């Protein structure tokens, strides 16, 4: 049975307390979280990046399910039973940060997740969610949750021009039903497209592999017009090489790629490179 619970989320940010926001979850999600906390209780001294990887390992074979965040009303949805590529990486980082805080509770986890998923950590209808992953990287670098290390890895500017959501509103139920949000998304897309961001082109990934680390969260950039990225995952070192741990829509579960990242990327025709977010 699904519960909708208003949790009072207390978090000191610039001396202010966050207001209460609705959190939607099932009892099974809370149990999954408690199981992860129990499994990693001896790792509280590990780095956040190490905890991201350790958390990801706990979710191996979890079913891939798309669109789990979509609901009639925008609210913080917790679904640890079913993951897509973004929710997998996002939940792993939120859990890692919760453990690292020294207070691994469900309430602190929901606060961490909300801070990562929404612009300025505030839920203000559908457009307040960080839909474009370059925007997710930018905003979470601003709030200190991650560092965008892409430029230091490879100083190659990315041709950032996004407008897919506003030009394809029929592909998004919420936009299709609310034309005012299309205009809001246009403004958000315009702001994103003004930014200077960087990427590591596919052909350079193997060359800079020694600068990539386990626990890095990557977005895979795309040649699809109007989009910035089409896939997200967590890097993990396997036998001395960097591989991708991700929720795979092809294999329909969370897996670690059989081939190193550089080879994995060459398997997607629209893949152009990666952006790198370091916890």
TrEMBL record:
Q: Which residues cross the membrane?
A: none
Which residues, if any, are the signal sequence?
Answer: 1-19
Keywords, comma-separated and alphabetical: Signal
Q: Which domain of life is it from?
A: Bacteria
Pfam families xref list: AmiA-like
Keyword Signal included in the entry's annotation:
yes
- InterPro entries from the entry? AmiA-like (IPR010846), Papain-like_cys_pep_sf (IPR038765)
**Name the UniProt record assigns to this protein:** DUF1460 domain-containing protein
Species source reads: Maribellus luteus
